[in-house]
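Amino Acid Chain and Its Fold in Token Form
===========================================
Scope: a single protein chain, as residues and as a discrete description of its fold.
Amino acid sequence: labelled as such and written in the usual single-letter residue code.
Position: the record begins directly beneath this header, with no further notes in between.
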Amino acid sequence: MALFRIRPTQADIEIAERISDHTSPEVEQMAKVLTWGADEHVVCALAAGWWLYCRHRSAQDRTDSNHILLTTVAATLLPHLLKSIFDQKRPDRLMVRAHLRGVPFSGKPLDAFPSGHAIHVGALASAAAVLPPAKRNLAWSIGAVLVLTRIVLLAHWTSDVWPCRQGRRRSGQRHRPAFGLTPRPRS
């Protein structure tokens, strides 16, 4: 049992009820497929693959891949630590009628906070901040879609997902100098 229990806000409950009332098995199936893009196993495998690929590339590419790998590993460990401190019931356990519309059961019942998927996406969005604007905006847009799948699946409350993504995107810039990581000049 965790040290703290977090309750959803009224807005969280209303959003979950709306999703529960208006979703369909097709929407839920699509969200289930898309959400894999932010799964810790997939993200770690991709980061490790990119890191290996960059070992024989330029010094800047190696530095960038180090940053991506370190950020990904930290973002993978953080949710596990936080879930041992906080308990929050997942919305899919409270929105019973949602299961009639295709909403699956997600993970452990009391592991709604924080969203590991949102933390992973936020961490990678932080790393994407050094990309040229078009690529950065594309990465952030894809990240937003991935994060929203967790809300559509009723795996997490809205207030647990969106702040994780926003906070990690902003905080990633603070630790770059500590690891000798400098942004690439934008072209």
